[in-house]
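Lab notebook, bench 4. Still working through the backlog of constructs that have no structural model yet. Next entry is a single chain of 138 residues. Request: give me the structure tokens for it.
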Amino acid sequence: MTQSILIDGPRLAGFLALETQVWEALVAGDPEADSRMLTEDFLGVYPSGFSGKTGHCDQLKNGPVMAGYRLSDAQLRIISPDAVLLSYRAAYLPSGTTAWKSMLISSLWENSAEGWRNSFSQDTPEFTAAPECPPEHG
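Model written out:
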């Protein structure tokens, strides 16, 4: 099924840039920017349960939900010419807190007439020591 797995290079960097746009929307509290990056049938699988596109965007109605973040350990699985799975580690600082958290994320990106959009994301919390270093973004 997987055509190839990339751990560096311009294609991986391009999808990290797309994923970063989602994170920047979370930091900015921008539901419109968030919405532009997600498919209409987006599904998020989180420790709190399932969420569609509306739920993902509605979390930003009252402003930013993240104060900072850092993405690392990324790999890109090429599923088909129009589908890739981006998996990575995210260190993040929720808005209004001082404690950094960490999770592993897998995001399915699909290409359509609108361009590349995120159709699925699963977040798995890591229960390790909190990241000590400041984020690259935020």
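Notes after review: The first strand starts at residue 4 and ends at 6. The longest helix spans residues 10-28. Flag for follow-up if needed.
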